[in-house]
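Hi F.,

I've been meaning to write this up properly since the lab meeting, where we talked about keeping a consistent format for the predictions we share between groups. The idea is simple: the sequence comes first, exactly as it goes in, then the structure tokens exactly as they come out, then a line or two of notes. No screenshots and no reformatting. I'm using this chain as the first example so we have something concrete to point to.
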Amino acid sequence: MAAEDVAVAGITNFLPEEMTPATQEWLINGLIKALPMLRMAALFAQRTDMFTEADLVTAAVAADGSAAGALSSRWLKLSQDDIFLHILTQFVGEDHQGGTMFGGCWAAHLSALAATERGMPSLFVLKTYNPIVFCAMRAFTAIPDVWMYPDLRAGTPEPTAARLAAEVAGAVSPGLFFSAETGVIRGAGVPADLYPALPISSDLAVNEYFTAVTRPGDRVLCLLAAPTVATRRAILAAFGITPALGGDRG
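Output, unedited:
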């Protein structure tokens, strides 16, 4: 069945106080069922922090009431004034890949963030072994003044971006080896064999990059910077959101 033919019953957000043991169990059981090709049970045996340490969890609900997708994030500080949004996880069930679930989860997540006093983040951070996720993130660099690290089209990393990435890597994966040249954090993914094989995107150059610089268990650290109010509004607009950015002071 094609992804667009599979019904999504709804999308809902959970704040930390709503992330009860029962809700966690519902999420975990649903995602294990929704992604049978990945070693999800082994993942959750080691990584429930993606829900318990999140500041916001967005879940997509399948027609049968089970969780079929999830997106979670937390705020982290680099300094007293510098904060970023660490995307802890984003999963879309196999039956929904290529459909509306991915965009729907992000729309709900960003809408909730934008409505808070803190507002939209100026820096999004995630670690991935998935070239498809990398390409989806990079698409936002079509917005003027939005930039991404690593920038595969530029070759050598820009020094300021590389220094920021090194600082971020220390915050999200303390103690692990990080290469500012490639963006790779060694051994950041558990279990190392979560994916049966490296996912393949439609961009050959991105696929070749991941093949060349990563091995199972590694993750590429990705930074997406939206440094102005205009860039953050443009990202929201891409998801059909036009709220007042109460916490966004530019």
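Notes:
The first strand starts at residue 8 and ends at 14.
The mean pLDDT is 92.

If this format works for you, I'll send the rest the same way.

G.
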